[in-house]
Design a protein that fits this description.
By secondary structure, the protein is of the alpha+beta class. It is built from 5 helices and 6 strands. The longest helix is centred in the first third of the chain and has 14 residues. It is globular and about 45 Å long.
Length: about 160
């Protein structure tokens, strides 16, 4: 799409070369450094901060995940401190979410839909409400939407 390759296959080959050669990793480390981060923390055990609380968000019922509202999830992690509302806000690198279920995935009641990494207080109640409302679980199968990469491939 950037006009750097004549075909999707050629673009994939170039990307694979950047990954295999280590150039992509070096560029990522440079980006972290330029933004004031410590690129060594990316590989050092215990190098990244850890939130004091890791809490699963349980599925309210069994079924298939039909919706995971990315905007609501993004607002929730912003409330937890993982982003900035204003440019002067400080980002808390220890908070956020992991282990997010995918649309089309079968879940059982009580199974984690995601894991929240948080601090006490700090917008947790409002964030939890957003996260609980972000998911829809239905009976029967759900066809997962195509991944962005698949959609881009189809357009090329």
């Amino acid at each position: 799409l950037a006009g750097r390759a004549d075909s999707a296959e050629a673009a994939r080959a170039e990307l694979r070369d950047h990954l295999d050669s280590g150039r992509a990793w070096a560029r990522f480390q440079d980006m972290v450094r330029r933004q004031g981060g410590d690129p060594d923390a990316l590989t050092r055990k215990g190098g990244l901060p850890e939130a004091p609380a890791q809490e699963p968000l349980p599925a309210p019922r069994s079924g298939t995940v039909a919706r995971a509202d990315a905007q609501a999830i993004g607002k929730a992690v912003l409330l937890l401190g993982a982003g900035r509302r204003k440019t002067t806000d400080r980002v808390d690198h220890a908070v956020g979410i992991t282990d997010l279920v995918k649309i089309g995935e079968a879940v059982t009641e009580g199974q984690p839909l995601l894991t929240v990494h948080r601090r006490e207080g700090g917008g947790w109640e409002e964030a939890r409400a957003l996260l609980e409302d972000a998911f829809e679980i239905v009976d029967g199968p759900v066809t997962a939407p195509p991944l962005l990469a698949d959609r881009l491939d189809a357009e090329s």
